[in-house]
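Format notes (please read before filing issues)

Several people have asked whether sequences and structure tokens are stored in separate files. They are not. Every record keeps both together, in the order shown below: the sequence lines, then the token lines. Line labels are part of the format and must not be stripped during preprocessing.
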Amino acid sequence: MAIQQPIGSDTLNSPSHSLSHRVFANDSEAPVKSVVVDSAGEVGIGTETPNSTLHVDGSITAAYVAKTATYTLTVSDYLVDCTANTFTITLPTAAGITGRMYNIKNTGTGVITVDGDSSETIDGETTQEVSQWENLTIMSNGANWIII
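Then the structure lines:
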């Protein structure tokens, strides 16, 4: 990838966008303007005019992992699909990761126990249970986990 300052008659090379940058893929088939960072720091993927901190004009992919036994979530996890058995999913510490989100889905026949790190809680409780076909979406508030 290469980062380029807009130049010439580029529509982003106006005084209000003079700090904008574009990232071009080293792939001749990639869109001409793959990623744009505007002067406000908003990032556009597939759009030249982002209207949020991150604006994706297209689909996204999130990390998926299937588990059948006790597991501790990592920084690389997003959706953990519990496909069999009854076991515990342990959360990392919520401290220092404000805004981190995890989804725990139970597609197996057991009951999944989601356990906070040490004395941290999930909506005030030390554990939450996820029954078959249920989903638990949680986010760190910097000290504990909240269900969203």
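For reference, the curators noted about this record: The chain has no helices and 14 strands. The CA atoms of residues 70 and 88 lie 5 Å apart.
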